[in-house]
Every structure is written in C-alpha cells, then in structure tokens.
Amino acid sequence: MQEPEEKKIALELLETEQAYVNRLHLLDQVFYTELMKEAKTGKTVPEEVVKMIFSNISSIYQFHAEFFLPELQKRMGDWHHNPRIGDVIQKLAPFLKMYGEYVKNFDKAVELITAWSEKSPPFQELIADIQRRKVCANLTLQHHMLEPVQRIPRYELLLKDYVRKLPPQSPDRGDAEKALEMIFMVAKHSNAAIAEMERLQNLWVVYQRLGLEDDIVDPSNELIKEGPIQKISTRNNSTSEKYLFLFNNMLLYCVPKVIQVGAEFQVHLRMDVGGMKVRELKDAEFPHTFLVSGKQRTLELQAR
240: part of which helix (H) or strand (E)? Predict the structure, then answer.
C-alpha cells in the first residue's frame, strides 16, 4: 500500500527533527561546553563572551531533545492508531518564542566569534580543533549556528505542506490548521524582535552623533527622516548649512560641528511636533523654501 502523503511529511518532520537535535547537541554539548571549560581556565576568552555567543542555546537544545523529539517519536510510532501531529505541534509552538532571543543575538554572536578569533589564537585553535572532528562534517561553527535561525521557517513550510495534503475530513485538520497559525505567529514574533533590535541600534547611533544629550535619549523615539537643510537669513539674504532630525515627537535643528570629536552635530533647537505647522513659501530668489513654526520659534528653511 502507498503511504498517505501527509504521513510522508510527518515522517520528514521527524527525520529532520532528529538531525536538528544532533546539531543542537553539537552546539550546546560540544562547542559551548568545551569553549566554556577553556574560558574558565582564563587562557582563551572571557566566560561572558562564550555565554554571549551561544545565547540561550542550552534551553533550546533541552526543549527539543527532552520534549519535542520524544513526543514526535511516540506519535509517529503510534500513527497507525492515531494519525495526527497537529496537537503535538500546538504544544511545541508557545515554546518556540524562546528562539526570539537566539535569532536576535545571531549577528552579534558571529561578530564576536570573528573578533575573538583574531584576538585570541587559543580560542581560534580550539574552534578549529572541534571543526576538524567528523561530527562537524567539514562545516564551520557559524554554519552550525545558523541552523536554529532557519528552523522555525522550516516548521512553517513542512506544516503548510502537511495541511495541504490532509484529506478534507481528516481528524487532524482542525488541530493542524491551528498549529500552523501558531507557528506563523511565532515566526512573526521572531521577526518583530529583530526589527525592534535594529531600530534601537540605529537610534543609538543617531544619539551618539548628537552627543548623547540627556533630554533627547529615549528608546521609544522613532527617527522618521534626517538630512541637510539650508537656513535662510532674511536679514542679510544669505543661507547657511544646517541639519535636521525629524522624530515622531520632535524636530531637532542642528549645526554640523567643524571639529568632529565625539558628536557630529550640536543641537541648536528642539521643536515639539505637537502644534507644529509647516507652510510652503513661494520665493523666486530662494526656491523650495518653507516655514516651520512651533511653540518655540519659527524657522525659514530651504531644501535641496
């Protein structure tokens, strides 16, 4: 008898899970454990760095090795009597949120491996030594570390395929569809974590360029646009180079610093967006000009 299509996909899920647990074992029990042991001797790299590289890989490994894989094995062993996996995946889905931390940390982890490999030859040598072992299959640590990042999208693909192949009246349809929805939400959660981290990093760079002024540094601000602008002086009919940062709640009117030590700009004026008005001017001598008026004052500016 031909195996039903949905069973083939469920078996593929089990096989890839087994291989994935082996990969996690390599990351947690081999790389992380051995690098940590060396770090404790104080000869290679600080313990904190090893912890930062591997983030929460131990929790991810334990979850898959001790819970998800055994549940899946048990279910596939009993497929003849109970042909379903939707409920098992529903139990798994909420725990996948812990991937957010790992995924968010991934780029930083790769940077740390590169930086410390240059700084500490014994660290580099230990990694190279582990990579030469048969279990590594000629792949680098960074390559193995990418696997958890790709795992949730893989679940999503397999489950989509599984739902598509299920007969309409299958007892697993409801559960499998709900499980797919849950996995989809987790993937979104993980992407949102990355986007938020990038936003904060970019924001921090902007704050550094502004000299980290106390009343401006706020993690909830959003930078909307920035760029050079000409300030028009009506007194002597001239323009001077200025720079604007527009946030969701304020407009910063800045002067580029000539000597760029530390900050790149000096904040001359901060205008609240609340109550601010912008009006275009028709000026033959100065095209592309507009007035920005706020509670604090009014500026006449010219765009490129």
Answer: strand 238-247
The answer, as to whether pTM is greater than 0.90, is no
Residue 13: HSE in the Cβ half-sphere, 13 Å Cα cutoff: 30
Structure-token match 């987790």, residue found: 186
Q: Which DSSP string do the residues of 214-237 spell out, in sequence order?
A: TTT--TT--EEEEEEEEEEETTTT
Angle, CA of 34, 104 and 148, to the nearest 5°:
55
Provide the token pair at 111.
């940077």
Rounded Cα gap, residues 144 and 32, in angstroms: 12
**Within the chain, which residue ranges are assigned CATH 2.30.29.30?**
223-302
**Cα–Cα distance for residue pair 133/139, rounded to 1 Å:** 10
104-135 pLDDT per residue, tens = 899 899 999 999 999 999 999 999 999 999 99
Rounded Cα gap, residues 139 and 128, in angstroms: 10
For 16-40, write each residue's pLDDT tens digit: 999 999 999 999 999 999 999 999 9
CA distance 285 to 5: 74
* CATH for the 223-302 domain, from 3.10.170.10, 2.30.29.30, 3.90.1170.40, 3.90.1150.10: 2.30.29.30
